[in-house]
Amino acid sequence: MHDKTLTELKAGLQAKDFSARELTEHFLDRIQARDGELNSFITVTREQALAQADAADQAIAAGDHRLLTGLPIAHKDIFCTEGVRTSCGSRMLDNFVAPYTATVVENMAREGAIMLGKTNMDEFAMGSSNETSFYGPVRNPWDTERVPGGSSGGAAASLAARLTPAATGTDTGGSIRQPAALNGVTGLKPTYGRVSRWGMIAFASSLDQAGPLGLSAADCALMLQAMAGHDAKDSTCLNEPVDDYLGGLDQSLDDLRIGVPEEFFPDNLDGAIADNAREALRELEKQGAKLIKVSLPSIKLSVPAYYVIAPAEASSNLSRFDGVRFGYRCDDPKDLEDLYKRSRSEGFGAEVKRRILVGTYALSAGYYDAYYKRAQKVRRLIRDDFARAFKDVDVLIGPTSPETAFQLGAKADDPVNMYMADVFTIAVNLAGLPALSMPSGFIDGLPAGTQVIGNYFQEGRVLNVAHRYQLATDWHLRIPGAFQ
Ligand code: GLN
Description:
single chain; binds glutamine
């Protein structure tokens, strides 16, 4: 059953080829048997999953089929889940049992989804390799000596290894798309405000967005259909009607105008990565799309602007974890000052501390104008670049990541090098646009991904382009040898 897409599993449940309980047990057993090699789950919720499966089987017997009835899904451990530990990959929240459930999780459960458990991630979603997790690194199922990317590394690795047929992730600067690329799966970051952030532990609130990771664009469409929508509990969640993502998948690509930004193919880009993305463009051209050269001159400033804005917001968001209001508390504090200091020193890992320091510095009196305000101006320039490009094209396409999965530890001591992992994804968050990464082949046995960026609320178009590509290719259906 694990070699099937979510869409196929949905059909199998409807045809009664297997029950929701059989399906759920199959994946729970795979997690139990194989996750020791990957460390992609922090928590597995076996009992709860089986109870949800039985409820789904009853619903199916009564003819009540919703979008996700009986389908198992793994949630990133950044989403609050009532009664279940929600760690955000941090010692700070190691013993935090959420008293409520995130809207995204709730929306999917309402459509009948079954939660298998909570996936591993970089601490507070800060990282590109899943090595900053308090629970240890996740390994890439294509080569377990390599990273799965991050921060949704557990989501992407568990999906690629078929330990779950679907997963949720979050993307602040690339955390859905980059791990999707490195694991050979499909991942979509929706338009900022398309999906509720309520109950999703905040990293950088103006950039964070939840989205689906699936084996195919069709699977992502199915999940997004359930996730998206207005939520009165999140004031940044927009009250726009949700498109029919599933209905729009098959649309022809005739006359689709694809912008190819020259900045996505810089001279120093790895030749194999560039060739891979160009090959994907050729396939889309064959289906009737037209390629148009475009330029996004300010996007070279996106990584530096992001590493001011994201840490600034993080330093503010993470101030609540002080050992009093929220989070880990140190043993035997001498006094209040000692309690704050040691709780935060012991509770946070090195990368999170680095971000808090950078963000606090960038926001402090005397530096605010030089760093934070300037970064916000750059952010506007980037947004304007995209707006200009989208006057002439429907989507923008280039590589998702400048490289395939790297060796564990390769960048652990080189944060700036690590930050460059998101060089092609970060601008999209700064502009608030939707973008998807789809598997587009292999380089030396490791998956490569191609990114499709759409205009605001054009998730449907982005999914359509990826779906048409996937009808003509089978990269997205390859399973890592050791996990067949
Ligand atoms: N890798 C980027 C960072 O470390 C993006 C992370 C994310 O999207 N959550 O901040």
